[in-house]
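Appendix C reproduces, verbatim, an entry submitted by the partner laboratory led by Prof. M.T., so that reviewers can inspect both the input and the predicted structure.
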Amino acid sequence: MTRHKTSRKSKAKRLPVRRAERGLDAGQIVLHTDAVELAPLTAQVQNLGGTAIGGYREPFSGHPVLIATLPIAAVAPTPFQRDLSPTHTKRLVQKIEESGSFLDPIIVVRGADGKLWTPNGRHRLAAAKVLGLKQITALVSPDEALAFRILALNTEKAHNLKDRALEVIRMARTLAKSRPRAKETEFAAEFEQPEFLTLGILYEDDSRFAGGAYSSFLKKLDRFGEHTLTAGLARRQDYAARLRQIDAQVKKIVAKLQARGFKSPYLRNYVVARINPVRWVRLKKNDKKPSMPMAAALTRMAAAARDFNVESVKPGDLAIVAALSSE
């Protein structure tokens, strides 16, 4: 019986491997720097004072990539990338000095302004500057769309909710200017989650906004729309304004609970959960239609916040929230 259970568990842990091979063969990968796909990038790199080392076709997609070194000053982070963390940069500098090598190349694309951008190398670029490096190794791609795939590309430092939301809203604002007629749904892969757009607006206004408390509510109701990015941003601006008003009410409720002697760090989460109109709605995978419109849910949430009875809260209620939050 034990063997049977162990066997079933080990099978469950196995990753499904694609049987049919795909991608390029070894002979298809090498690409010279003067090849038609790379020649413009090679010229730009050399004009900037860098060196084109070699080229290849990326084995999965077949897209051309140039391996190069670039002057530090020739590369800038994408303007919508998350903010620099000095602490992480210092730690990165320390580890590079300890290892004696700077091995990880940054990914670089041509930005909207014609300059070179890195969508996933802000901290390595900053570390290179701190270390006083003249050049940095880069994988340069002619695919400008890579600049907007930050969340998938970034392996430097795990994104927290605020980082992700701010990057997504910055991307959306940039894309809305360059492609005003594009639909929000066209960038579902780049934005990853629709609630990041709404939370991003809130974090822009207040970097200390408690987005985590409202994430579950938004995840169940927020969806990418068929409207344009510009229209979507205007709509989410309204959602954010209403959530900001609700959060102001939540803060007042928390203050009253603290006055009653409640000191739990989960007070805000508890209050938000209590006023959440979709608290008990189960989120189904690929559920495209929300259980109720966002506007209606915000109206009900605001009413629940106004009518919240602090006298009804018991110490045991907070213990349940604490247990759920620690899972």
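The radius of gyration is 24 Å. Additional entries are available on request from the coordinating office.
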